[in-house]
## 1
Amino acid sequence: MSDAPVSYAPSGGPDEVCSYEDTVAAYDPVLGLEVHVELGTKTKMFCGCPTEFGADPNTQVCPVCLGLPGALPVVNETGVESAIKIGLALNCEIATWCRFARKNYFYPDMPKNFQTSQYDEPIAFNGWLDVLLEDGSTYRVPIERAHMEEDTGKSTHVGGATGRIHGADYSLVDYNRAGIPLIEIVTKPMTGVGDRAPEIAKAYVGALRDLLRALGVSDVKMEQGSLRCDANVSLRAKVGDDPGSEAQQEVPLGTRTETKNVNSLRSVERAVRYEMTRHAAVLSAGQTIVQETRHWHEDTGVTTSGRVKSDAEDYRYFPEPDLVPIAPDREWVERLRASLPEPPAQRRRRLQETWGFSDLEMRDVVNAGAVELIEATVAAGATPAGARKWWGGELARRANADGRDLGDMGVTPAAIAQLDGLVQSGRLNDSMARQVLDGVLAGEGMPLHVADARGLAVVQDDGALTEAVNTVLAANPDLVDKIRAGKVQAAGALIGQVMKATKGQADAAKVRQLIMDTVAPEQG
Amino acid sequence: MSTLSRDDVAHLASLARIALSDAELDRMCGELDVILDAVATVQQAPTEGVEPMSHPMPLTNVTRPDEVKPSLTAGEALSGAPEAESDRFSVPRILDED
Ligand SMILES: [Zn+2]
């Protein structure tokens, strides 16, 4: 949500920052993350308006979500179910009875002049989420609460020299987004993170994204704003070298700042790192941190002062009289618990074991977003190692270079399974397989078809290959002498020539074997 | 008995986005105090052993299925708007970023 502005700090030059090394040498960071996720329900939280992304302005609105007098909201049952599922997946307790509350503020993004939210009675509270870090260790993120609320409208600012809000003459508001169900997930202060604070923040949001996707409650597209993150950062004096020590936990928390709308995993990591170094510079100069919101600037990688943070009492929360309390009976909760998919972390462990991947291999696959694709490819008959090699290697590289999702590359798990089969059977060698993949990506059809059409097959006929080897050996007596003198690496040049002579259709290992057998049988 | 300070009233006015002159602030301070005193009478009601109540009907879990209902057209939605442009509500410039 965007709250009402209170005041701006004067804009000066860029803020001073310390080096990251100096920051973590002197201070102990504490994080708090607030994540808003837009649910993927068909309708809004309190009315039957559709929630489709990209509709014409103000065509998905009604008297309820426009806050017209006399309109009566009614809760979306699927929205409540999704909230409970999220709470259960985050190992939370589920409230036996809870209410909605009005969060009052005057700002045109909410036509009602309040946002329907939950205050001191969240539907889910007191949970945790285990997050896998790059070095293979796990950090347990303590979850304070997950509560139900609604999204706000979207403003476009017109006029002004820069198109930015300062100097805008007026604003245009589209309320299609107002009322779309949101779940706000709030962590408890994350302590003991030490110099890994930025990594842990990123890993948590990534793990949450995977979890929400697995639950099927949201499409979780950060670039479309269906998952948004606010990052709270504070520093306190460092005591000793163990951020988890008891002595460290006894040091009171420092003043925090809240960096709003950090909307990509990479930005979460960068914004936390930046705020840590900025806080350190302020504190090291003997000054104090102002409790305020900060704006994150993706392009420059810095935050700037937003507004002084409003106190909760300024929102004058009170129970929403138009919505009756939600009291999920235990049978319902247990039914939802039974419907939960296998948690992503557990599923990963199971798949890693089944596939026989090392920790490092599995982590690369997870980071490449290839787990589901490999699973489908193995199900289509590929070897796990083959599936990993293509999705985690060649395709991940190409997806990365094109800035695309691995799943949007235009190649199916069935095609990769067929390609792996052609390699496993010896029909294709690695370089041919890559050529076949080029063909598949270019829309030439399935791998078998591409291989046939391009005439790609490893030469299995020893007679033809032996002839090619002998021709190359006869043309290169100097290299043959070198090999005989013990310089086995000279064989590489010969292999290259044979491969060239056979248009890459020979099996390189076999060529090597033939050369060594002919030239220096005792060294082969 | 004065319970509201002038600063309190100024703060409330800023939350409500109402601009008050110094004279208005002084007047509102007095008027709101009278109102608060009147409402304070309610606090004398004996409430010991009475549960706070936000909803008079003993209802819970009133929900609707997640089914799309027709929305208004943009024209209908904007028919009551003092100003509109490009099928959007036009409002005075706002200061914060979205
Ligand atoms: Zn509506």
Note: The pocket of zinc ion is lined by residues A 44, 47, 49, 61-62, 64-65, 179 (CB under 6 Å).
## 2
Amino acid sequence: MTNKSNNGFNTWQKSFEKETKKNFSDAISETDEGINIKPVYTKEDLENFSFVKKQSLPGQWPYTRGPKASMYTNRPWTIRQYAGFSTAEESNEFYKKNLESGQKGLSVAFDLPTHRGYDSDDDLVMGDVGKAGVAIDTVEDMKILFNNIPLDQMSVSMTMNGAVLPVLASFIVAGEEQGVDRSLLSGTIQNDILKEFMVRNTYIYPPEPSMKIVADIIEFTSKEMPKFNSISISGYHMQEAGADNVLELAYTLADGMEYVRAAMSKGLDVDDFAPRLSFFFAIGTDFFMEIAKLRAARTLWAKIMKDFGAKNERSLILRTHCQTSGVSLTEKDPYNNIIRTSYEALSAILGGTQSLHTNSFDEAIALPTDESARIARNTQLILQNETGVTKTVDPLAGSYFVENLTEELSKKAWDIITEIEELGGMTKAVKAGIPKLKIEESATKKQAKVDSGSRVVVGVNKYKNPKEPSVDVRVIDNNRVRDDQIKKIQAIKESRDTTAVKKALANLTNAAKDETNLLVPCIEAIKLRATVGEVSKALEQVYGRHFAKSLSVSGVYGKHFEGDKEFMKVESKIKEFENVNGRRPRVLVVKMGQDGHDRGAKIVATSFADMGFDVDMGPLFQSPKDVAKDAIENDVHAIGVSTLAAGHKTLVPELMKGLKEIDPKSKIIVFVGGIIPEQDYEFLYENNVSAIFGPGSNIIESAEKVIDLISDNLSKE
Amino acid sequence: MELVDKIFKGERAAIAKAITLVESSKDTDQQISRQLISELIKKPGKSIRVGFSGPPGVGKSTFIESFGSYLVSQNYKLGILAIDPSSQITGGSILGDKTRMVEISKNPNTFIRSTPSRGTLGGISMGTREASIILDAAGYDFIFIETVGVGQSEIVASNLVDIFTLIVGPGSGDELQGIKKGITEYADIFIVNKNDGELKMEASKTAADYKSALSYYKKLDELEKQVLLVSAIEQTGMEDVIKTINQIIDQNKLKGIFDERRADQLEYWIEEEVKNIIASDITNRLTSKGNISKYSEKVMKNEMSMYEAVETITKDTLKQ
Ligand code: B12
Ligand SMILES: Nc1nc2c(ncn2[C@@H]2O[C@H](COP(=O)(O)OP(=O)(O)OP(=O)(O)O)[C@@H](O)[C@H]2O)c(=O)[nH]1
Ligand SMILES: [Mg+2]
């Protein structure tokens, strides 16, 4: 530091301390990532960088400033809204309307049965068909989905990981039957299985065969589909599950490295496939951090790929899609969400994303309506057309703060990446459950900050709206969708060449026993009208179905509340309960159906345990009948159903029935948490649900209510 | 008692309620529980009780899922008592066993109950023995008791079962030197789990290490201890396990060891109950008289020696 600037800084610091009546050092705040944010940054904060190059240009090594030289000045980012619900027919209508209103690319959300490789007529998925995405059972559905959407002109992104083989095969065959050669198809298949095991939970097979499938798809597309991104390496879901930005960044890039190795192990040269790797990040509310994250991601990836020996420049460049954060959006005072989403979108743009999804304001209530989807889309149209943000590339370059943050994030992420590499890579780490646990720990900390009020969420724990607006919700009649799908499946099964289908499926099973690329026999089976479920089962015969062993964090929530009055009140209520009843209140927390949103359930379970409950944690994907058996055998006082994927109206009554079937006199009470539109409250109460805890519920308050309800119920004996 | 009939009929909810009673810390529940158990042991069932113990994370639950699936597929009825070590000292606990026993927990021929160990010795919780009596009365063929193996816990656990199994992981052979030779006295079978994939070599080596160590400690008149290799994940070696269990049970029955053990365990149980009653009685007397604080003050003031105080308090407490 030169003397002159030093003097200047000292004067500034004095003024600062006078104005704030605080020491400079006390004004430094720590982010979730453990990065210290100073109240001011100076030129000195650009010194000693090991990752960020101070004078680089957009489209140049190390690509911090963007993958392209011209960025949005030439062509703005692609507005790509993630959507899908009900039947292929209805989703197709919705897509076409959106494209007419200015959306540029498609992004398909499949329903959970499709994700998990079950056909709509499978008993296991009764409550889930068409609910949280579109149901695709055969190539016929896929063709309807893209009816009048020319696949040689429209880029299509598909979020599919578990059932990636039959779904990609259906897309290829649908294109062919539309008259479009596979080499002309453009878009992206998510095909990122590692993060499924960590946070997204739509895996089907165990990690090893799943990684083989990923590699098969990279190999196939690199040879036959030159315009198609073979994978979308996703950090988005990690942040949504609770990861801070360093974890998101590090795990995503470490996943990427694992996929590169998997593809290279098939004998591919790194430059054969690397240009077609793409990424996907979440953009949360921490405005500058998110910008820095995208810049850091590009910087680190370039280095990683160079180390892999990439020669082609396009192999070094990280291209990404982004989505604003759904978890930052609230059920309470929902119009605030439009504002949150706008800022997040701006962050993504300033960070240089290639495409973007903006969430609808009813995110924490249900799937978007036509109206809320329009506002979400317009958020981007306004940014593109009215604000001038497209006119300058990487406008924050040179900002002491943003550059410094980019470097800090890079460093921290690199440390984690190195650690994982030393452990033997992400597949190993994921199998041991370490990343999942770290993310859950981070999620639990965030929840504690909100519940204790040390983090403000407008309209939730502060500045509450005394007159909550009521909003329209999209309602999906899953029974009707299911009936429609079943009819279509039956019709196809009657008209197809059954012997040929059987043979094709047997071929597929055989192929799974050796190193054959599975997409090839898969396309054959799909062409002959084998269903997504049949194809998945053919592979399951060899690979088996994966069941996750879930670990739990402990003590993280409680630690945040040491000495807290409300927390201690619940603790003492529990002690009193134990004295009266001879045991602690015991609650079974469950996930039923194919809903894989486990963040809420895990956080509630660990927090309740910290307060003194005995909590039984059920596995994912339980049937209501199995839950009833568990609950009764463990003689729990209550069942807490966590439900986010809209299966509650089918699954909760089934659970009640299950309990009565085993024990007609069962006194186990049931409460429900998660995404429940207000319109459904009455239905649930009529079905004897004792309490409902929606998004944003304070866990300590919920716990108190639960113990009161249990005590009341016992005193009725 | 109505509950008793329902248990004999195998009613799930009744079994569950009864286990709650025997685990309860409430006096009134304990009284009912004693009556209940007295009724139930009048008509003993035919169950074989098998203990599974081993260090955290060796795959006990996964093994039980795997082995249990095999048994129910052979039409056996299976009761499982999982003592979950995850409880905290001050807080509650998260009982996650069900996430590791997904398949068998669905089966109508199983009954699975997890219990927080609450820091009791050996992870055996209060009521485990009674719970196994309930499951026996309810007609389960096998009762599995899963406990985490730490310190002395194996000894406590082995006192509740007909056959005691120690599950170990590949590479644990090195720890053998550290294991006191008493190990052979309470474990009947040693299972080396995770005999799969990259771990196969290591697992075989571990099994060999155990075999040689065990033959070294073997007493003359004793049966050869069995060391088995399994993979819970790949479901291999399960037939060997059931074959070995049946063999040992048959032999033990033939030689009278089976009944002898049960008699010993009964003796131990009676002794324990008596000790418990005396101990709690003494504790009550101690607290009601407040002698301890009274005399410790005297010791502090040098009015009497520590040992004099102890003697005086003891005499005073034991005097009716
Ligand atoms: C995070 C998230 C994800 C993450 C999940 C990560 C994980 N491991 O959980 C990711 C990105 C992977 C994901 C994926 C999907 N998601 Co999502 N997701 C969300 C999101 C943004 C937040 C949910 C959340 O975790 N919140 C934080 C936790 C702490 O809150 P919570 O669960 O609500 O719990 C609180 C209360 O509800 C209550 N509570 C909840 N459970 C319980 C239980 C008990 C016992 C008690 C006392 C209280 C209680 O207390 C908690 C604390 O306050 C919601 C929208 C939203 N803002 O809510 C959509 C949302 C749930 N997702 C949705 C969809 C459609 C999906 C997908 C199916 C999309 C697709 N077609 O591919 C996938 C598939 C996931 C799967 N396998 O099921 C829809 C569901 C639509 C509907 N219900 O009609 C939502 C509502 C978004 C939307 N509007 O479209 N998602
Ligand atoms: N490779 C391999 N891993 C296994 C096997 N059995 C269990 N595991 C893994 O070991 C870990 C622990 O398994 P659990 O069954 O929970 O072990 P546990 O002994 O019951 O653990 P605690 O109840 O916590 O003491 C899990 O990650 C299992 O997947 C096996 O046969 N082979
Ligand atoms: Mg276990």
Note: Chain B touches chain A through 35 residues (CB under 8 Å).
